[in-house]
């Protein structure tokens, strides 16, 4: 008896769920009808003529929204299940736009952005009426007006007329933008930095035409300095005078001392401990000091950087760096000291240019060579990084070029030119496919390699080089088979990633390249990996094989951080 009751209950429950099948139309029409009818499948309904009438009414609304006012709709239930319904729809002839009367007045009449908007979105005579596009145009006009400072904008005429019996529609939009407002005086409050220094960050001047995006640029520029813990940029609408909007910036100073700690691991350097001490601002001129300590099994370093901002504080500045590093890996043991004076400029298209003067002293052992050297190297570099899509971007590119020169004529221990370049690209196809490519190249000209310290020579192999080989194990060797480093470097990588689920990805890759002195000995690594888009950045685990070097075998690579 119990089994019978359960069977009857299950059958009744199955028949209480409404299922709809739409026939006779397809594409956008069918999709829109399905959206309008979705609420019926989510709620409890009762079979009958009232349900049929409600379904018909909603379907008619969905069709009218896309310009079809002459539809015919029939509802057919299944004989054995009154809640399994088929809606057979004949859309009929669409309503076509007969009249388009769109007029702009006020300052926007001569605004190229409004002209471009109408060119893209204004309905065309003879097109099928689409209520969503009509409402979208109205919203776009309002939004553009707000972004560009037409704060008094309004529709003097806003009418959409439909004559279903004639299959005709008449669009009439008259938009009066009024006067475009301009930026007024900018005032700062709560700051600990000189006002003249803050004024240099303004992307606009008093009297310039208002543009909301420039307020965002000001906010970003202030945030980039690191001087403030909170930033509020807003227009003072109560003090508007002669169509000029004053801007008020409320600031709160950042803490005087910030200490950051971090623990990480990679197969290249093993476990790593980092300790950073930052003083975001030392005085009212906005000078700052940063000290970084990094410890790992094979490398230990400490570096201090003093930053002096210039007129354009966020992007142009001097930086003085002092650093000491100790390395002990494979056939390399070195202790180096660096003193660097750098000048940074932000150029067009997000390029940074850096001119530098570096003094390097290095005491080293490289294979069978023990030596020390003092070098004075002026240099210049250009780099640009762009990305979109968060910590694991769907698109990104990075380019970096650097040239350093040394000459005995100015007291340097060797004469040479060192070139280094890096390039990387990330692209996506849909939501589930990513592609990552990297290229790394370098060359040393003029000088005998043996006179140069290990930090200037080239080595390949490791997590971010040629996987399948140990960290910096690809280079020329001496007669005893010890690594001595190369004069040239060229490596490349190609990787395909497929999203398994959520933030988890599978990867397949191949790396190729060499570090050499006279003739390259090309090496290739291939493998597969797992990627996790963690909150702190991509975490990579790779299983790789070196194909060309005897005994290289299998390598496990683990790394956390940017892919380019």
From TrEMBL:
<keyword id="KW-0812">Transmembrane</keyword>
<keyword id="KW-0732">Signal</keyword>
<feature type="domain" description="Bacterial surface antigen (D15)">
    <location>
        <begin position="264"/>
        <end position="561"/>
    </location>
</feature>
<dbReference type="GO" id="GO:0009306">
    <property type="term" value="P:protein secretion"/>
</dbReference>
<comment type="similarity">
    <text>Belongs to the TamA family.</text>
</comment>
<keyword id="KW-1134">Transmembrane beta strand</keyword>
<dbReference type="GO" id="GO:0097347">
    <property type="term" value="C:TAM protein secretion complex"/>
</dbReference>
<comment type="subunit">
    <text>Interacts with TamB to form the translocation and assembly module (TAM).</text>
</comment>
<feature type="domain" description="TamA POTRA">
    <location>
        <begin position="20"/>
        <end position="90"/>
    </location>
</feature>
<dbReference type="Pfam" id="PF07244">
    <property type="entry name" value="POTRA"/>
</dbReference>
<dbReference type="GO" id="GO:0009279">
    <property type="term" value="C:cell outer membrane"/>
</dbReference>
<protein>
    <recommendedName>
        <fullName>Translocation and assembly module subunit TamA</fullName>
    </recommendedName>
</protein>
<dbReference type="Pfam" id="PF01103">
    <property type="entry name" value="Omp85"/>
</dbReference>
<dbReference type="InterPro" id="IPR010827">
    <property type="entry name" value="BamA/TamA_POTRA"/>
</dbReference>
<dbReference type="Pfam" id="PF17243">
    <property type="entry name" value="POTRA_TamA_1"/>
</dbReference>
<keyword id="KW-0998">Cell outer membrane</keyword>
<dbReference type="InterPro" id="IPR035243">
    <property type="entry name" value="TamA_POTRA_Dom_1"/>
</dbReference>
<dbReference type="InterPro" id="IPR000184">
    <property type="entry name" value="Bac_surfAg_D15"/>
</dbReference>
<feature type="domain" description="POTRA">
    <location>
        <begin position="181"/>
        <end position="236"/>
    </location>
</feature>
<dbReference type="InterPro" id="IPR039910">
    <property type="entry name" value="D15-like"/>
</dbReference>
<keyword id="KW-0472">Membrane</keyword>
């Amino acid at each position: 008896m119990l089994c019978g009751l359960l069977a009857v209950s299950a059958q009744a429950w199955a028949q209480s769920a409404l299922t709809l099948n739409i026939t006779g139309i397809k594409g956008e029409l069918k999709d829109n009808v399905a959206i309008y009818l979705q609420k019926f499948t989510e709620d409890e309904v009762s079979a009958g003529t009232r349900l049929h009438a409600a379904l018909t009414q909603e379907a008619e609304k969905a069709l009218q929204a896309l310009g079809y006012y002459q539809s015919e709709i029939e509802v057919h239930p299944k004989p054995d299940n009154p809640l399994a319904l088929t809606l057979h729809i004949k859309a009929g002839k669409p309503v076509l736009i007969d009249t388009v009367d769109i007029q702009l007045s006020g300052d926007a009449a001569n605004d190229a952005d409004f002209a471009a908007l109408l060119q893209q979105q204004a309905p065309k005579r003879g097109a099928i009426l689409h209520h969503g596009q009509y409402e979208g145009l109205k919203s776009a006009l309002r939004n553009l007006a707000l972004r560009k400072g037409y704060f008094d904008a309004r529709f003097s005429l806003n009418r959409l007329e439909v004559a279903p019996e004639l299959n005709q529609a008449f669009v009439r939009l008259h938009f009066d933008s009024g006067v475009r407002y301009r930026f007024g005086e900018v005032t700062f409050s709560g700051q600990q930095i000189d006002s003249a220094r803050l004024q240099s960050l303004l992307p606009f001047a008093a009297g310039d035409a208002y543009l909301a995006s420039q307020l965002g640029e000001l906010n970003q520029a202030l945030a980039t300095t690191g001087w403030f813990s909170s930033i509020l940029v807003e227009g003072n609408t109560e003090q508007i005078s002669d169509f000029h909007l004053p801007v008020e910036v409320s600031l709160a100073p950042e803490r005087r001392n910030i200490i950051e700690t971090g623990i990480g691991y990679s197969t290249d350097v093993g476990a790593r401990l980092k300790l950073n001490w930052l003083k975001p601002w030392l005085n009212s001129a906005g000078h700052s000091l940063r000290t970084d300590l990094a410890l790992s099994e094979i490398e230990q370093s400490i570096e201090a950087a003093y930053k002096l901002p210039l007129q354009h504080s966020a992007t142009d500045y001097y930086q003085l760096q002092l650093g000491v590093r100790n390395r002990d890996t494979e056939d390399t043991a070195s202790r180096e000291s660096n003193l660097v004076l750098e000048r940074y400029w932000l150029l067009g298209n997000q390029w940074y240019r850096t001119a530098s003067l570096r003094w390097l002293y290095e005491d080293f052992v490289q294979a069978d060579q023990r030596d020390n050297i003092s070098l004075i190297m002026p240099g210049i570099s250009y780099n640009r990084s762009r990305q979109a899509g968060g910590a694991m971007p769907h698109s990104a590119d990075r380019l970096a070029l650097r040239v350093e020169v040394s000459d005995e004529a100015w007291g340097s221990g060797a004469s040479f030119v060192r070139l280094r370049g890096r390039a990387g690209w990330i692209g996506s196809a849909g939501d589930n496919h990513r592609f990552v490519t990297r290229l790394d190249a370098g060359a040393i000209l003029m000088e005998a390699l043996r006179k140069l310290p290990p930090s200037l020579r080239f080595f390949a192999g490791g997590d971010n080089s040629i996987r399948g080989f140990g960290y910096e194990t690809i280079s020329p060797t001496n007669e005893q088979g010890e690594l001595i480093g190369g004069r040239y470097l060229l490596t490349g990588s190609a990787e395909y990633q497929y999203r398994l689920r959520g933030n988890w990805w599978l990867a397949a890759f191949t790396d190729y390249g060499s570090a050499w002195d006279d003739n390259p000995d090309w090496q290739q690594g291939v493998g597969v990996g797992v990627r996790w888009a963690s909150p702190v950045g991509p975490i990579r685990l790779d299983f790789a094989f070196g194909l060309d070097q005897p005994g290289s075998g299998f390598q496990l690579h683990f790394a956390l951080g940017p892919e380019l």
